[in-house]
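job 3f2a | input accepted
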Amino acid sequence: MSDFCEGRVAIVTGAGGGLGAAHARVFAREGGAVVVNDINADAAQAVVDEITAAGGKAIVNTSDITNYDDSLNAVTAALDAFGDLHAVINNAGICRDRMFASMTEAEWDAVIAVHLKGHFCISSHAVHYWRGQSKAGKEVSGRIINTTSAAGLQGSIGQSNYAAAKGGIAALTLNQAAELGRYGITANSIAPSARTDMTTQVPEFAERMAAPDDGFDYYAPENISSIVVWLASAESSHVSGRVFECEGGKLNICDGWRSTEWVDNGGYIEPAKCGGVVEKLLEIEVPAQKVYGT
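job 3f2a | predicted structure (294 res):
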């Protein structure tokens, strides 16, 4: 056990397995107290049991992150059990992969609800708590850590619902950072690559991400948890509005949308002349990364 996060309290959503469970374990190992949120109570309890057996502090919460009123219970549970809240680690997610032309409304709605609305609900209640503290003159050290994806940053064939939700999360992170800094709250996002239940459902990923017989386990989810726990710590107060791509022992910062130079026509551009302007723009742009699967 370490004291790096001693005294800090975090909610981790979707923490009954995969990345969420890893985040909860590492945060607790670093001295923090964790609310292990998952709709699967047995899975959440197993993670809590593992943490407490190792000497850490954790409780189960089964709030539905897509239900605004119910998600308040996760924040209340943190305050009741540990007396404070410092970080919301939004991790929970699902996939309903299908090509756009075949996607159903239900498949679209489910993914948007769990990912995008799920990132809103608990964070909203946490922000209300932190803003209240700030207005009362208390020093706030709030952290929102969101989970986007390379699919959301550059697209992914067969995952238009997932890519749209994850792209929305990246944009949400930028807005949260810009709006909430005045209250002592930072907002950052990760785009992880690791071995989880979702990734191992894809045969190509399952083979590539399989654990080695010995040596460094490159795709172990705990490798991602290091940056997550640092972002949730008191030390990260100067970092906000960033998206970190992370896998193995590597990190980078993802650049957002950037404007090219203007091509100025000096007045109204006739529709038939827009093609010429677009050709000039294409000559000076830096092409985006390719969509996954192309």
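job 3f2a | The mean pLDDT is 95.
job 3f2a | closed
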